[in-house]
Amino acid sequence: MTPIIKDYNKPPEKFTSNKRIQEIVKQILRDKNGKAISAYYYRAYVIEELEIIYHKKCAYCESKPSVTSPLEIEHYRPKNRIEKTSHRGYYWLAYEWSNLLLACRKCNQHKSNKFPLVDENMRCTDDKINIADSKALLSEKPLILNPEQKSFCPQIHFICRPDGSMKGISKYGKATIEIFKLSDINERDELIIARKQIVDKIIAQINTQLWLFKKKYLKLEGLHDYLKNEIFFKLLKNANSPSSSYRFMYWMTYKKFDLFVIQPLSSRIAKEYSNIVAESFERFIQNRL
Fold first, then answer.
1. Boundaries of every domain in the chain
2. Measured between alpha carbons, how far is residue 265 from residues 106, 148, 239 in Å?
3. What is the pLDDT of residues 138-158, one digit of tens each?
């Protein structure tokens, strides 16, 4: 997951001016349930706007859409009855801009109507409370992390490992990983492999250049230039780019370069060569390369 900037006060104009949606909202509030809810009246232009905000990535796993898992509109707070509770669902938030996220079908299906809280007694039932960052909704303390929240900081809640798996380091991170199966090799093997391939590709590229250097096809200066421009700069760029798939994996690789790259390199090649890469990276982060 990676932070998302979204203006809750600027929903799509077609969304707020749609008279049919306004009629449905009135019916929902009158009936106190979500039976009248339909995405038909807003799906096209809302998902188009969300794809811009989310850079066409899933809010939870950071994957781009695929044939088997297209991107869908996701209700952060479920509009129907919440699993393992008597709560009838946040039906009044079905058409609330701040409650609509972008998620891949797999994450959406895994989440379904799950929405656990730190304390069930804090669950909101007031259908006059709408905005996601309102005091009443924030005080619920949902265990599922929301990348749109201003306080969201992934490194507080997660770590990624070189093998592509993830680990929760807070109760929120642990719950989010469990619900979306973000590190479940049986349920989401393609996701774990995709994250791992980021590291594997970097190591393979470096290995090739070190082989050329070892065979004297490449001078030390040329090796440093390649590492700087093709490895370090691109790694940093992806770690800082909101549009990068698995941006947090890139960030972890950059921050833990020794663990993710140098140590695996050292196990495959002579230490003198991995030391060159380690020293080059150290010079890069110190702006001396």
1. 13-115, 189-285
2. 34, 37, 21
3. 999 999 999 999 999 999 999
